[in-house]
Amino acid sequence: MSAPPTGGPPEESASDGPRARRARAARTGVLRRLLRPRDRTVRPQTAPRHDTAPDLDDCRRELARWQRHADSFERELTRVSFERAHLLAWLAALHPSSAVVAPAAGAGPDGTHLLRLVAGGRQLSWRLPPRDIPLFAHVPYTERATGHLSRDGPAAAEQAAHIRSHTRLLALEGTLFAAPAPARGRPQAGPAEH
């Protein structure tokens, strides 16, 4: 009599061919289907469906909010640009002997222009967009700047430093040569009459 087999599953020989491996895989698949609980169906794990309408509404509200900010900044920039143009036109009127408007280098006939003037012994220049040119009708126009206005203006930082120092000088000059203002509320004493 032969003894019953003991131990683990029988060892498979290394010489099993592809046909034996396919048969084994088929048996394993059948066993898995048979042993799977019947009340459950295997479904791939998916995230629960999410309603995107509230997210879209939030995005639209954020877009509208940022658009209001952008519009506000655009209005402020337009206002500041308008004020800058008027202040430059006034400054050019205060320096009629040296102020000149000339086309910027490389600009076409309707392109950017430069306002150039001399203040405090130094040349200053500012770019003027085409929409601001009508404000400078009182300033002489030249196709090419000549003399001391022909060279390029100073760098922005250098120009700003010169404007600050020149402004301090003018303010100091104004306080030194101004007549003292009478004190308010007190009558000013005049010469005594006899």
Entry keywords:
mainly alpha, 42% helix, 3 helices, 194 residues, elongated
Short summary of the structure?
This protein has 194 residues and is mainly alpha-helical. Helices cover 42% and strands 9% of the residues.
How would you portray this structure in words?
By secondary structure, the protein is mainly alpha-helical. The protein has a domain of 121 residues. 42% of the residues lie in helices and 9% in strands. Strands 1-2-3 form a 3-stranded antiparallel sheet. The longest helix is centred in the middle third of the chain and has 42 residues. The chain is elongated.
Tell me the total number of β-strands: 3
The span between the termini is 164 Å
Helix content: 40-55%
Beta-sheet strand percentage?
Answer: 5-15%
Biased composition (Basic and acidic residues): 36-55
Region (Disordered): 1-55
Explain the layout of strands and helices.
Elements: H1 18-35, H2 53-94, E1 100-103, E2 113-119, E3 122-128, H3 156-177
